[in-house]
């Protein structure tokens, strides 16, 4: 059964027909001004140097080019990024023209990942790109117990090579008030829960056809090795559907074996 599921997933992703050189093409990500360019630089350095632990597609994460103010479409395009990452916006404030530049870049055929954000500023306009409504109201907090992520779509590439459920290494998570997650085109890929907290969306995906968006309701960048695997998977999945960089994400399922647990 496992081999059939793997074969189907690889066929779905186009691995069987992907050119041999596709494996050497890196996926480029650029981190937008956020806590990701201020406090979690080590995460990007780690993924840049250790990506072979997670799969056979290189990732190149640029965490400096867009760390400043006044992004423009041209400045974003100059990074050559396949996917943009807004990593825990926190109390960072954004200008409308910056957010409009991001929106145009993503909708032109690139990916967007937003983590542990509650859309306090102009970045609220980006919520629909990751499948959330602009009317959603979110707060952030710290769970008393370890966070677990239950895959609702266990064959989705984001969950390749992790346990199901998997225990995250972070306890920081976002909560919807008044306890209603309002989606706008998004699909809940995985639920977040703890011993004390009932299930709520942990990972939301939006495949719009010409671009893809992902929202993580937990601070995945500060997590453990399984979090890093999911983040790596997300960076591969998020760019424009059909590009070569997506063709081999499933290959890691055949090549790697992880710790005991339910695997794909």
Give a topology summary:
Layout: H1 2-13, E1 27-31, H2 41-50, E2 59-62, H3 73-77, E3 83-87, H4 96-107, E4 111-115, E5 138-142, E6 148-151, E7 166-167, E8 172-176, E9 187-193, E10 200-207, E11 212-216, H5 225-237, H6 251-255
Parallel strand pairs: 1-2, 1-3, 3-4, 4-11
Antiparallel strand pairs: 5-8, 6-7, 6-9, 9-10, 10-11
Descriptive overview:
- The protein is an alpha/beta fold and about 260 residues long.
- It has a single domain (about 1-255), classed as Rossmann fold.
- It has six helices and eleven strands.
- It has helices at about 1-15, 40-50, 75, 95-105, 225-235, 250-255; strands at about 25-30, 60, 85, 110-115, 140, 150, 165, 170-175, 185-195, 200-205, 210-215.
- The strands form two sheets. The chain has a nine-stranded mixed β-sheet with strand order 2-1-3-4-11-10-9-6-7, with helices on both faces. A two-stranded antiparallel sheet has the order 5-8.
- Strand 10 (about 200-205) and strand 11 (about 210-215) form a beta hairpin.
- The longest helix has 13 residues, at about 225-235.
- The model is unreliable at about 1-20 and about 245-264 (pLDDT under 50).
């Amino acid at each position: 059964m496992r081999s059939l599921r793997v074969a189907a997933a690889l066929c779905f992703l186009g691995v069987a027909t992907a050119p041999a050189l596709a494996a050497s093409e890196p996926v480029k990500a650029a981190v937008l001004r956020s806590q990701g360019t201020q406090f979690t630089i080590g995460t990007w350095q780690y993924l840049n140097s250790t990506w072979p632990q997670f799969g056979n597609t290189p990732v190149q994460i640029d965490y400096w080019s867009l760390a400043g103010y006044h992004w423009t479409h041209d400045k974003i395009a100059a990074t050559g990024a396949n996917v943009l990452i807004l990593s825990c916006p926190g109390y960072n404030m954004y200008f409308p023209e910056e957010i409009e530049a991001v929106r145009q870049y993503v909708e032109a055929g690139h990916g967007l990942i937003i983590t542990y954000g509650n859309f306090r500023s102009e970045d609220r306009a980006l919520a629909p790109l990751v499948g959330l409504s602009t009317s959603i109201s979110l707060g952030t907090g710290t769970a008393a117990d370890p966070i677990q992520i239950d895959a609702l779509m266990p064959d989705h590439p984001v969950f390749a090579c992790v346990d199901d459920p998997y225990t995250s290494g972070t306890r920081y998570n976002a909560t919807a008030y008044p306890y209603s997650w309002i989606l706008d085109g998004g699909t809940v890929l995985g639920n977040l829960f703890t011993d004390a907290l009932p299930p709520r969306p942990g990972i939301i995906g939006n495949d719009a056809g010409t671009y893809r968006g992902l929202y993580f309701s937990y601070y995945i960048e500060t997590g453990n090795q399984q979090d890093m695997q999911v983040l790596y998977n997300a960076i591969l999945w998020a760019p424009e559907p059909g590009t070569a960089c997506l063709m081999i994400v499933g290959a890691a399922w055949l090549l790697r074996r992880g710790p005991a647990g339910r695997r794909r």
